[in-house]
Amino acid sequence: MPKLGFRPSSVKSMADEVSVLAAALALLAVIPSQVRAQDLRPYEVAGDAIPQPLIGGSGDPVRGRAIVVDRQRGLCLLCHAGPFPEQRFQGNLAPDLTGVGARWSEGQLRLKIVDSRRLNPATIMPPYYSTDELARVGRNWQGKPVLSAEQVEDVVAFLTTLTETP
Fold first, then answer.
1. What is the mean pLDDT of the chain?
2. Hey, where are the domains in the chain?
3. pLDDT at residue 32 above 70?
4. φ and ψ at 49, to 5 degrees?
5. For residue 150, what are the CA distances in angstroms to 55, 98, 134, 139, 144?
6. Could you give the CA distance from residue 52 to residue 149 in angstroms, rounded to a whole number?
7. CATH architecture, domain defined by 14-159
8. What are 77-82's contacts with CB under 8 Å, separation 24+?
């Protein structure tokens, strides 16, 4: 059985691990965004990126870091690990965030956060700024993105600062 990283002592099998992931993602159902689908800002995808910010300027990397490590908003560390020594139980289901700002451009990071399904239809990464073609959406989240445009830009601003490789 492959080791997936996040394994509290109560998790004994891969099925249990998937259940832990599902339960954590279910937390998103109780923290609805204030943005509704009709309020989503338009954006253009160019190749594998969204080159233009969703807002009038850049996001705030400090707020972006807070979202990345928050286990109720972003839930990034459920699947990703990164340079967050104070954070316990970082995942390894997805790429390590260490050096992500050197591996991908700002626009590529933006598309991965907005809707990673455009790059990989089989991804398990949630679309943080899309409400299209979603299945089994919690009642509180129906018609709402996980993050606002400002929050997406905050996360992008933070991730672009992660340029040091391990």
1. 83
2. 14-159
3. no
4. -150, 160
5. 6, 23, 22, 23, 14
6. 12
7. Orthogonal Bundle (1.10)
8. 78/6, 78/21, 78/24, 78/25, 79/21, 79/124, 79/125, 81/5, 82/162
